[in-house]
Amino acid sequence: MPEQKRDYYEVLGVSKTASDDELKKAYRKLAKQYHPDMNPGNAEAEAKFKEVNEAYGVLSDKDKRAKYDQFGHAGVDPSFGGGYGGGFDMGDIDLGDIFGSFFGGGFGGFGGQRQANPNAPQRGASVRASITITFAESMSGCEKELNVPRMENCESCGGSGCAPGTTAEVCPDCRGTGQVRIQRGGGGFAFTTTAPCSKCRGTGKIIHQPCPDCRGNGQVRRQRVIKVRVPAGIYDGQTISIRGQGSGGPNGGPNGDLLVNVAVIPDPRFERDGNDLYSQRNISFTQAALGAELQIETIDGKVKYNLPAGTQPGFTFRLRGKGAPSVNGRGRGDQYVTVQVQVPTNLTAQQKDALLAYAQTMGEGTPAPATPVKDFFTGKKKKK
Fold first, then answer.
1. What is the pTM of this model?
2. What's the whole-number mean pLDDT along residues 253-259?
Protein backbone atom coordinates (compact mmCIF):
# COMPACT_ATOMS: atom_id res chain seq x y z
CA MET A 1 0.00 0.00 0.00
CA PRO A 2 1.32 3.50 -0.79
CA GLU A 3 2.06 5.87 2.05
CA GLN A 4 -0.77 8.11 3.23
CA LYS A 5 -0.42 11.54 1.68
CA ARG A 6 -1.84 14.85 2.78
CA ASP A 7 -4.28 16.70 0.57
CA TYR A 8 -2.29 18.85 -1.87
CA TYR A 9 -4.46 21.92 -1.22
CA GLU A 10 -3.85 21.48 2.51
CA VAL A 11 -0.10 21.20 1.89
CA LEU A 12 -0.05 24.60 0.13
CA GLY A 13 -2.60 26.11 2.51
CA VAL A 14 -5.03 27.20 -0.21
CA SER A 15 -8.64 26.48 -1.06
CA LYS A 16 -9.74 24.16 -3.87
CA THR A 17 -10.86 27.23 -5.84
CA ALA A 18 -7.44 28.90 -5.61
CA SER A 19 -6.30 30.71 -8.76
CA ASP A 20 -2.97 30.09 -10.50
CA ASP A 21 -1.56 33.26 -8.91
CA GLU A 22 -2.69 32.18 -5.44
CA LEU A 23 -1.08 28.76 -5.94
CA LYS A 24 2.15 30.32 -7.14
CA LYS A 25 2.26 32.80 -4.24
CA ALA A 26 1.65 30.04 -1.68
CA TYR A 27 4.26 27.79 -3.30
CA ARG A 28 6.97 30.46 -3.38
CA LYS A 29 6.38 31.33 0.28
CA LEU A 30 6.59 27.71 1.46
CA ALA A 31 9.47 26.79 -0.87
CA LYS A 32 11.56 29.60 0.60
CA GLN A 33 10.54 28.64 4.14
CA TYR A 34 11.54 25.00 3.81
CA HIS A 35 14.36 25.30 1.26
CA PRO A 36 17.35 23.09 2.23
CA ASP A 37 19.69 26.08 1.90
CA MET A 38 17.70 27.84 4.61
CA ASN A 39 17.48 24.72 6.81
CA PRO A 40 20.80 22.85 6.54
CA GLY A 41 20.64 19.40 8.10
CA ASN A 42 16.93 19.70 8.94
CA ALA A 43 15.33 16.46 7.72
CA GLU A 44 11.81 17.62 8.57
CA ALA A 45 12.19 20.82 6.54
CA GLU A 46 13.61 18.81 3.63
CA ALA A 47 10.61 16.47 3.73
CA LYS A 48 8.20 19.42 3.75
CA PHE A 49 10.11 21.04 0.89
CA LYS A 50 9.66 17.89 -1.20
CA GLU A 51 5.97 17.70 -0.22
CA VAL A 52 5.40 21.34 -1.25
CA ASN A 53 7.13 20.79 -4.61
CA GLU A 54 5.09 17.65 -5.26
CA ALA A 55 1.81 19.42 -4.44
CA TYR A 56 2.62 22.42 -6.64
CA GLY A 57 3.81 20.17 -9.46
CA VAL A 58 0.32 18.64 -9.63
CA LEU A 59 -1.89 21.67 -8.90
CA SER A 60 0.02 24.00 -11.27
CA ASP A 61 -0.62 21.60 -14.16
CA LYS A 62 -4.15 22.06 -15.54
CA ASP A 63 -4.64 18.44 -16.61
CA LYS A 64 -3.12 16.94 -13.47
CA ARG A 65 -5.16 19.24 -11.26
CA ALA A 66 -8.37 18.17 -12.98
CA LYS A 67 -7.50 14.50 -12.43
CA TYR A 68 -6.55 15.16 -8.83
CA ASP A 69 -9.80 17.03 -8.16
CA GLN A 70 -11.77 14.06 -9.56
CA PHE A 71 -9.81 11.07 -8.28
CA GLY A 72 -7.49 12.39 -5.57
CA HIS A 73 -3.97 10.98 -5.33
CA ALA A 74 -5.00 7.91 -7.31
CA GLY A 75 -5.51 10.07 -10.38
CA VAL A 76 -1.95 11.42 -10.47
CA ASP A 77 0.25 8.90 -8.64
CA PRO A 78 0.88 5.53 -10.37
CA SER A 79 1.83 3.96 -7.02
CA PHE A 80 -1.84 4.12 -6.03
CA GLY A 81 -2.75 1.81 -8.89
CA GLY A 82 -4.99 4.53 -10.29
CA GLY A 83 -4.87 4.44 -14.05
CA TYR A 84 -7.74 6.89 -14.20
CA GLY A 85 -6.19 8.71 -17.14
CA GLY A 86 -9.38 8.36 -19.14
CA GLY A 87 -11.22 10.86 -16.98
CA PHE A 88 -13.86 8.29 -15.91
CA ASP A 89 -14.93 6.51 -12.76
CA MET A 90 -17.44 3.77 -11.83
CA GLY A 91 -20.14 6.25 -11.07
CA ASP A 92 -20.11 7.90 -14.51
CA ILE A 93 -21.94 6.82 -17.65
CA ASP A 94 -19.88 6.70 -20.84
CA LEU A 95 -22.11 8.08 -23.60
CA GLY A 96 -19.96 6.42 -26.25
CA ASP A 97 -20.60 3.04 -24.64
CA ILE A 98 -24.35 3.72 -24.33
CA PHE A 99 -24.73 4.54 -28.02
CA GLY A 100 -22.36 1.70 -28.88
CA SER A 101 -24.57 -0.82 -27.05
CA PHE A 102 -27.64 0.46 -28.89
CA PHE A 103 -26.22 0.88 -32.38
CA GLY A 104 -23.14 -1.31 -32.49
CA GLY A 105 -20.50 1.40 -31.94
CA GLY A 106 -19.22 4.27 -34.07
CA PHE A 107 -20.28 6.97 -31.59
CA GLY A 108 -16.89 7.72 -30.01
CA GLY A 109 -17.59 11.43 -30.41
CA PHE A 110 -20.03 11.21 -27.50
CA GLY A 111 -17.28 10.80 -24.93
CA GLY A 112 -16.23 7.22 -25.54
CA GLN A 113 -12.51 8.00 -25.31
CA ARG A 114 -10.49 4.99 -24.21
CA GLN A 115 -7.48 4.88 -21.96
CA ALA A 116 -4.17 4.66 -23.79
CA ASN A 117 -2.27 1.40 -23.69
CA PRO A 118 -0.79 1.31 -20.16
CA ASN A 119 2.27 -0.55 -21.43
CA ALA A 120 3.10 1.99 -24.14
CA PRO A 121 6.06 4.35 -23.56
CA GLN A 122 4.99 7.37 -21.54
CA ARG A 123 6.65 10.71 -20.94
CA GLY A 124 8.12 11.09 -17.46
CA ALA A 125 6.78 13.59 -14.94
CA SER A 126 8.24 17.08 -14.70
CA VAL A 127 10.16 17.84 -11.53
CA ARG A 128 10.01 21.22 -9.80
CA ALA A 129 12.81 22.83 -7.83
CA SER A 130 13.80 26.34 -6.74
CA ILE A 131 16.96 28.38 -6.34
CA THR A 132 17.72 31.73 -4.73
CA ILE A 133 20.23 34.11 -6.32
CA THR A 134 21.47 37.62 -5.63
CA PHE A 135 20.44 40.65 -7.66
CA ALA A 136 23.98 40.87 -9.06
CA GLU A 137 23.79 37.23 -10.21
CA SER A 138 20.47 37.92 -11.91
CA MET A 139 22.10 40.77 -13.84
CA SER A 140 25.24 38.93 -14.95
CA GLY A 141 23.89 35.37 -15.17
CA CYS A 142 25.33 32.47 -13.22
CA GLU A 143 25.50 28.71 -12.92
CA LYS A 144 24.11 26.82 -9.94
CA GLU A 145 24.11 23.19 -8.85
CA LEU A 146 20.87 21.60 -7.65
CA ASN A 147 20.28 18.36 -5.78
CA VAL A 148 17.19 17.09 -7.58
CA PRO A 149 15.16 14.08 -6.38
CA ARG A 150 13.57 12.32 -9.35
CA MET A 151 12.26 8.96 -10.46
CA GLU A 152 14.59 6.97 -12.70
CA ASN A 153 14.17 3.67 -14.47
CA CYS A 154 15.50 0.83 -12.36
CA GLU A 155 18.88 -0.34 -13.67
CA SER A 156 18.39 -3.87 -12.35
CA CYS A 157 15.23 -4.63 -14.33
CA GLY A 158 15.50 -2.01 -17.08
CA GLY A 159 12.23 -0.45 -15.97
CA SER A 160 10.13 -3.61 -16.44
CA GLY A 161 9.54 -4.15 -12.73
CA CYS A 162 10.35 -7.86 -13.12
CA ALA A 163 13.16 -9.69 -11.39
CA PRO A 164 16.12 -10.30 -13.74
CA GLY A 165 15.48 -13.31 -15.97
CA THR A 166 11.67 -13.11 -15.63
CA THR A 167 8.89 -11.41 -17.60
CA ALA A 168 5.46 -10.09 -16.76
CA GLU A 169 2.26 -11.89 -17.72
CA VAL A 170 -0.32 -10.10 -19.84
CA CYS A 171 -3.35 -9.69 -17.60
CA PRO A 172 -5.92 -12.34 -18.60
CA ASP A 173 -8.88 -10.25 -17.42
CA CYS A 174 -8.23 -7.07 -19.42
CA ARG A 175 -5.87 -8.61 -22.03
CA GLY A 176 -3.27 -5.96 -21.38
CA THR A 177 -5.55 -2.93 -21.84
CA GLY A 178 -5.74 -2.05 -18.17
CA GLN A 179 -9.53 -1.69 -18.38
CA VAL A 180 -12.52 -4.01 -18.23
CA ARG A 181 -16.02 -3.51 -19.57
CA ILE A 182 -18.91 -3.82 -17.15
CA GLN A 183 -22.55 -4.39 -18.12
CA ARG A 184 -25.00 -2.23 -16.23
CA GLY A 185 -28.70 -1.49 -16.14
CA GLY A 186 -31.93 -3.38 -15.72
CA GLY A 187 -35.60 -3.38 -16.64
CA GLY A 188 -34.87 -3.60 -20.37
CA PHE A 189 -32.37 -0.75 -20.27
CA ALA A 190 -28.73 -1.88 -20.34
CA PHE A 191 -25.46 -0.10 -21.09
CA THR A 192 -21.74 -0.79 -20.84
CA THR A 193 -19.13 1.13 -18.87
CA THR A 194 -15.38 0.72 -18.45
CA ALA A 195 -13.34 0.67 -15.27
CA PRO A 196 -9.72 0.00 -14.28
CA CYS A 197 -8.96 -3.68 -14.11
CA SER A 198 -8.85 -4.81 -10.47
CA LYS A 199 -6.65 -7.82 -11.18
CA CYS A 200 -3.71 -5.83 -12.57
CA ARG A 201 -4.67 -2.46 -10.99
CA GLY A 202 -4.89 -0.85 -14.43
CA THR A 203 -1.35 -1.72 -15.49
CA GLY A 204 -2.31 -4.37 -18.04
CA LYS A 205 0.27 -6.81 -16.71
CA ILE A 206 0.88 -9.04 -13.72
CA ILE A 207 4.35 -9.33 -12.23
CA HIS A 208 4.79 -12.63 -10.43
CA GLN A 209 8.41 -12.03 -9.43
CA PRO A 210 8.97 -8.32 -8.69
CA CYS A 211 12.42 -6.80 -9.01
CA PRO A 212 13.91 -6.63 -5.49
CA ASP A 213 15.46 -3.19 -6.10
CA CYS A 214 12.34 -1.33 -7.27
CA ARG A 215 9.74 -3.71 -5.77
CA GLY A 216 8.04 -4.09 -9.12
CA ASN A 217 7.51 -0.37 -9.78
CA GLY A 218 10.10 -0.26 -12.57
CA GLN A 219 11.43 3.01 -11.16
CA VAL A 220 13.44 4.15 -8.13
CA ARG A 221 13.86 7.58 -6.55
CA ARG A 222 17.37 9.01 -6.79
CA GLN A 223 19.14 12.29 -6.02
CA ARG A 224 21.00 13.84 -8.93
CA VAL A 225 23.26 16.91 -9.00
CA ILE A 226 22.23 19.00 -12.01
CA LYS A 227 23.85 22.21 -13.20
CA VAL A 228 21.45 25.03 -13.95
CA ARG A 229 22.53 27.92 -16.17
CA VAL A 230 20.70 31.08 -15.13
CA PRO A 231 20.56 33.62 -18.00
CA ALA A 232 21.49 37.25 -17.40
CA GLY A 233 18.46 39.49 -16.88
CA ILE A 234 16.18 36.86 -15.34
CA TYR A 235 13.30 38.19 -13.27
CA ASP A 236 12.31 37.23 -9.75
CA GLY A 237 9.73 34.42 -10.00
CA GLN A 238 10.64 33.28 -13.51
CA THR A 239 10.92 29.56 -14.23
CA ILE A 240 13.76 27.91 -16.15
CA SER A 241 12.80 24.76 -18.06
CA ILE A 242 15.56 22.19 -18.57
CA ARG A 243 14.45 19.53 -21.03
CA GLY A 244 14.98 15.88 -20.23
CA GLN A 245 16.14 16.40 -16.62
CA GLY A 246 12.86 15.39 -14.99
CA SER A 247 11.71 11.92 -14.00
CA GLY A 248 12.30 8.98 -16.33
CA GLY A 249 9.45 7.90 -18.60
CA PRO A 250 7.67 4.63 -17.77
CA ASN A 251 8.01 1.79 -20.28
CA GLY A 252 11.01 3.39 -21.94
CA GLY A 253 9.37 6.76 -22.54
CA PRO A 254 11.32 10.07 -22.61
CA ASN A 255 12.25 11.94 -19.45
CA GLY A 256 10.16 14.83 -18.25
CA ASP A 257 11.56 18.32 -17.70
CA LEU A 258 13.13 20.04 -14.71
CA LEU A 259 11.31 23.28 -13.90
CA VAL A 260 13.40 25.60 -11.72
CA ASN A 261 11.72 28.58 -10.06
CA VAL A 262 14.16 31.48 -9.52
CA ALA A 263 13.90 33.80 -6.51
CA VAL A 264 16.01 36.98 -6.71
CA ILE A 265 17.15 38.73 -3.51
CA PRO A 266 16.46 42.49 -3.93
CA ASP A 267 19.30 45.03 -3.98
CA PRO A 268 18.47 48.19 -1.96
CA ARG A 269 20.40 50.34 -4.44
CA PHE A 270 18.26 49.50 -7.46
CA GLU A 271 14.63 49.08 -8.33
CA ARG A 272 13.72 47.20 -11.50
CA ASP A 273 10.86 47.91 -13.89
CA GLY A 274 11.06 45.77 -16.99
CA ASN A 275 14.64 46.12 -18.21
CA ASP A 276 15.04 49.63 -16.76
CA LEU A 277 16.67 50.27 -13.40
CA TYR A 278 15.95 53.15 -11.02
CA SER A 279 18.23 54.54 -8.31
CA GLN A 280 18.78 57.67 -6.20
CA ARG A 281 21.83 59.85 -5.64
CA ASN A 282 22.19 62.26 -2.73
CA ILE A 283 23.94 65.56 -3.51
CA SER A 284 24.78 68.65 -1.47
CA PHE A 285 23.26 72.10 -1.90
CA THR A 286 26.61 73.30 -3.27
CA GLN A 287 26.77 70.53 -5.86
CA ALA A 288 23.21 71.28 -6.98
CA ALA A 289 23.93 74.99 -7.32
CA LEU A 290 27.40 74.88 -8.89
CA GLY A 291 27.32 71.52 -10.68
CA ALA A 292 29.68 68.63 -10.02
CA GLU A 293 31.25 65.48 -11.41
CA LEU A 294 29.47 62.57 -9.74
CA GLN A 295 30.35 58.90 -9.42
CA ILE A 296 27.15 56.92 -10.08
CA GLU A 297 26.76 53.28 -9.06
CA THR A 298 25.56 50.96 -11.82
CA ILE A 299 25.46 47.18 -12.17
CA ASP A 300 28.69 47.52 -14.22
CA GLY A 301 30.48 49.53 -11.53
CA LYS A 302 30.80 53.29 -11.02
CA VAL A 303 30.49 55.69 -13.97
CA LYS A 304 31.05 59.45 -14.20
CA TYR A 305 28.22 61.91 -14.71
CA ASN A 306 28.57 65.70 -15.04
CA LEU A 307 25.76 67.24 -13.01
CA PRO A 308 24.76 70.62 -14.52
CA ALA A 309 24.77 73.77 -12.36
CA GLY A 310 21.38 74.76 -11.01
CA THR A 311 20.07 71.20 -10.72
CA GLN A 312 16.76 71.14 -8.85
CA PRO A 313 15.75 68.55 -6.22
CA GLY A 314 14.02 65.54 -7.80
CA PHE A 315 15.80 65.97 -11.14
CA THR A 316 16.14 62.61 -12.97
CA PHE A 317 18.76 61.83 -15.58
CA ARG A 318 19.22 58.77 -17.77
CA LEU A 319 22.24 56.53 -18.27
CA ARG A 320 21.68 54.83 -21.59
CA GLY A 321 22.37 51.11 -21.77
CA LYS A 322 23.09 50.80 -18.04
CA GLY A 323 19.88 48.94 -17.18
CA ALA A 324 19.17 45.23 -16.94
CA PRO A 325 20.05 42.94 -19.85
CA SER A 326 17.17 41.38 -21.73
CA VAL A 327 16.76 37.74 -20.75
CA ASN A 328 16.66 36.78 -24.44
CA GLY A 329 20.01 38.50 -25.02
CA ARG A 330 18.60 41.35 -27.12
CA GLY A 331 19.95 44.61 -25.74
CA ARG A 332 19.70 46.30 -22.36
CA GLY A 333 17.49 48.83 -20.66
CA ASP A 334 18.51 52.20 -19.20
CA GLN A 335 19.21 53.40 -15.67
CA TYR A 336 17.30 56.41 -14.34
CA VAL A 337 18.89 58.31 -11.46
CA THR A 338 16.95 60.79 -9.32
CA VAL A 339 18.96 63.35 -7.33
CA GLN A 340 18.00 64.29 -3.79
CA VAL A 341 19.43 67.54 -2.33
CA GLN A 342 20.46 67.07 1.29
CA VAL A 343 19.93 70.00 3.66
CA PRO A 344 22.97 70.45 5.93
CA THR A 345 22.55 70.04 9.70
CA ASN A 346 24.74 70.90 12.70
CA LEU A 347 26.39 73.85 10.96
CA THR A 348 29.42 75.50 12.51
CA ALA A 349 29.36 79.22 13.34
CA GLN A 350 31.54 79.96 10.31
CA GLN A 351 29.19 78.02 8.03
CA LYS A 352 26.17 79.83 9.44
CA ASP A 353 27.83 83.22 8.83
CA ALA A 354 28.59 82.18 5.24
CA LEU A 355 24.97 81.17 4.66
CA LEU A 356 23.68 84.40 6.19
CA ALA A 357 25.94 86.36 3.90
CA TYR A 358 24.66 84.35 0.94
CA ALA A 359 21.06 85.01 1.98
CA GLN A 360 21.70 88.75 2.12
CA THR A 361 23.21 88.74 -1.37
CA MET A 362 20.06 87.02 -2.59
CA GLY A 363 17.94 89.73 -1.01
CA GLU A 364 16.41 87.34 1.49
CA GLY A 365 17.16 89.59 4.47
CA THR A 366 18.24 88.30 7.84
CA PRO A 367 16.52 85.03 8.79
CA ALA A 368 14.62 85.06 12.09
CA PRO A 369 16.35 83.22 14.92
CA ALA A 370 15.21 79.66 15.41
CA THR A 371 12.32 79.34 17.85
CA PRO A 372 13.16 77.10 20.82
CA VAL A 373 11.21 73.87 20.81
CA LYS A 374 8.67 73.74 23.67
CA ASP A 375 7.07 70.74 25.29
CA PHE A 376 3.65 70.28 23.72
CA PHE A 377 1.91 69.67 27.04
CA THR A 378 3.75 71.87 29.56
CA GLY A 379 4.80 74.77 27.35
CA LYS A 380 8.26 74.65 28.90
CA LYS A 381 11.43 74.69 26.85
CA LYS A 382 12.98 71.27 26.35
CA LYS A 383 16.42 70.72 27.81
CA LYS A 384 19.19 70.11 25.32
1. 0.58
2. 91
